[in-house]
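Check my protein:
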Amino acid sequence: MNVEKEADNLIGKDRNLLSWGVSALLSGLRETRYKLETVRVDEARLLEKIKNKISIYESLPRNAEIKIKSIDPLQYEILPAKAGVVFDYDGAMGEVKRLWSDLQPAQVLIPNKNEQPVIFEDSVKSIENRLPAVFAHGSISLNFQDPYTGLKNDWQIGLDQIADWLEIQKTLPNGFVFGLKQGPMIDFLTGKVEPSVNVEARDAKFKISADNKVEEFQGSRPGIKLDLEKTYLAINEALIERTQHNEGVAIAVMAVVERAEPKIKTGSVNNLGISEVLGVGTSNFLGSPINRIKNIANAVKKLNGILIKPGEIFSAVESTRPFTLEGGYLPELGIKGDELKPEIGGGLCQIGTTLFRMAMNAGMEIVERRSHSLAVSYYNDPTNGNPGTDATYYDPKPDFRFRNDTANYVLIQTEMDTATGELRFYLWGTNDGRKGYYSPPVVKRWIPYGETKIVETTELKPGKKECQKPFRGADTFFTYTREFTDGRKKEETVFESHYRALPEICLVGVEEKVVKPAEIVENSVGVSEAGQPVGNSE
């Protein structure tokens, strides 16, 4: 083939093609650079990739530390400071992005540098004499009070935790103090405190049924969120104080929270004066038998939504009856004399007790209240675990009653958590400035329950034994206080309770005794001619 002739023919046919070929040849011989105007980089993933490759070759600087070996007696050691070698990750990432912008491979030399600690052994020794004071003042209590319910909670940061989280911190200009490591403290706040504090803001709902009971209700409440950073700083400052002085150091710190208001508030959805929580009552039924839980749940449902007029007296008996199977109740143990016997509706004193505490915390007038005959653990007061703030009720008497002596309606709302055993009753209304509260119950004396009592019975198989646990007796008292802003005098009522002691009672099964006719005659006071007893042996 004549290549030159063919080329001439091709060129003749299309000179544009020749022009394109020459241009392509020249572009291949000439260096051409392209630059991207915008490069978006997932910097977090890029940094992670870089660190995964080279972090094993670096060693971070270590400040001088103090390691607690024992609190009582106090024993510790000071760990020396140590310099480190670190890589310039920021510079490396900047160079990678530059090369990528030029569409070039990211081959980067990452420089390292020596990095010195900021706290040395001499710094630790300068405050070493203050270390005993860190532990001498005990644990730190973190407190929180829900602005919606008024319920309080606290968490203890114990001495063991303080010892584990202790670190040396630098202050301006050149001072040093004992503080708490931020990482473990934030983990503690996130895991232990946040679940009990954080809640979303909630809008109000209100609907009354034909029988004048609130069938749909949701009270508005503010949203609460724990401020982790500020709460940590408050706790840390409490420990710093122990480094600086002995007097007036804080042993309790209030949790710092952020508040968000609801869009629809309770007072705007009704004209009855139901606008805010006046008081909350709590008790715990954890460990109750299934029938007892079902009885409590049935009464909780009946109470929820009850409206009480101004001046009206609320009755626990009237509000939760009828105490029958048809009324939704089941057989469960109740106190009958010296025994705990099953009866329909057993366990409802959990309801009376919770209502009593609710009414007192709302500042209501207590019309009728009676304590139980036995100090049952379900009714121990949540503030200190002592008996004394319970209330029993039984159809028709005794009853638990309180009067709504405010100028507006009040509303009962109930909450029951079967997982935690927590029972909460809320009384809603209009706050007229009053305050209601009660002191923790005081036990004046405990009464021992004595020796076990054996009772023979034919209701059990011979030899079988069933025992009822003993109950310590107690004499207790507490003070219920009502304060007013309308000129009425402050009221203080002392509630005293007596709980009798009950020994362990064991039923032992025995064989039924066959009584012969002759024995009947001998044991009788007299026998008629017809052979019928006319008296008894008692």
Notes: Residues 271-509 form one domain. The chain has four domains: 1-32, 43-125, 128-260, 271-509. The CA atoms of residues 452 and 504 lie 5 Å apart. The two ends are 145 Å apart (CA to CA).
